[in-house]
Design a protein that fits this description.
By secondary structure, this protein is an alpha+beta fold. The chain contains 6 helices and 9 strands.
Length: 271
């Protein structure tokens, strides 16, 4: 009888466990279906956004960075890499729906690492073309109305940013985003460049080129030298710098050739 009782108890527990697993699985299916419905709704809204933009650029990196940062902070920051990857794909699909945005990627260095950085930051839905050099990728993006170049980070032998300086071939292009978007690194491994306007995301550093280093005294916090080419030095300034701000006008008074050539949102996870 004892064995029969023990067996009966085991069967009851097994039945309860199977019931619980079935219930959890059904709940997962319910959540998955709800998410799929919301994703479809989001894509429809993306089409409406494109119609409302009336010719404005498809890619707005400052809004994108700000939105992903807010979502990450809503989770306490612990899920930042997951949030970034999920929204990279969602935004990639949305941008692909909105218009003819294309990525022009320089495969200098480790090509597999570059593709991994691009996928994690931009998802997989945006059309992408690759080039052997930064200069060729930059030129292709400049000739493309909605083109975005993904290039090696400025510094050392990477002097392609000279084209963005006063007198350069592409002075209306700007450095607008760093790759990867997550991590504790203070300087990215690659950057995204386009003719979109420089705008704040809420946690940024500005990129400024100077000829006269005495103009550095215009800043409250010391900028960091990131690269040199020809007469220009590239500095990162630990704040968002507006072209109309008093601090930038003070900078111009000391160095008329000074120019803001970009803005890098802080990576998620940076202290």
């Amino acid at each position: 009888m004892a064995n029969d009782t023990h067996s009966s108890g085991e069967n009851k527990n097994d039945s309860q466990q199977i019931h619980d697993i079935d219930y959890v699985r059904s709940e997962i299916d319910r959540v998955d279906n709800a998410m799929l419905s919301l994703i479809a709704e989001r894509l429809e809204l993306s089409k409406a956004v494109r119609r409302a933009k009336s010719g404005a650029r498809v890619w707005r990196p400052s809004r994108e960075e700000s939105h992903v940062r807010d979502l990450s902070e809503a989770t306490g920051g612990s899920l930042a890499p997951l949030v970034s990857r999920i929204w990279a794909e969602l935004m990639s699909a949305s941008l692909a729906v909105q218009g003819p945005m294309r990525l022009h990627i320089a495969l200098e260095g480790d090509a597999l690492e570059v593709w991994s950085l691009v996928r994690d930051r931009f998802g997989t839905a945006i059309p992408a073309l690759s080039y052997p050099t930064a200069s060729s990728a930059l030129a292709a993006a400049y000739a493309d109305a909605e083109g975005v170049a993904v290039l090696p980070t400025p510094g050392g032998m990477n002097t392609w940013w000279a084209a963005l300086c006063p007198g350069g071939a592409m002075p209306d292009m700007n450095i607008l985003s760093g790759l990867p978007r997550t991590g504790a690194e203070l300087w990215p491994r690659a950057v995204a460049v386009a003719t979109a306007d420089v705008a704040p995301s809420g946690a940024d550093e500005s990129l400024v080129v100077l000829q006269n280093i005495e103009a550095l005294s215009s800043f409250d916090e010391p900028p960091i030298l990131r690269g040199e080419t020809g007469p220009y030095k590239l500095y990162s300034v630990p704040q968002y710098l507006d072209k109309e701000s008093d601090s930038f006008h003070r900078l111009l008074a000391r160095d008329p050739k000074a120019k803001i050539i970009g803005c890098l949102p802080h990576s998620l996870g940076r202290s």
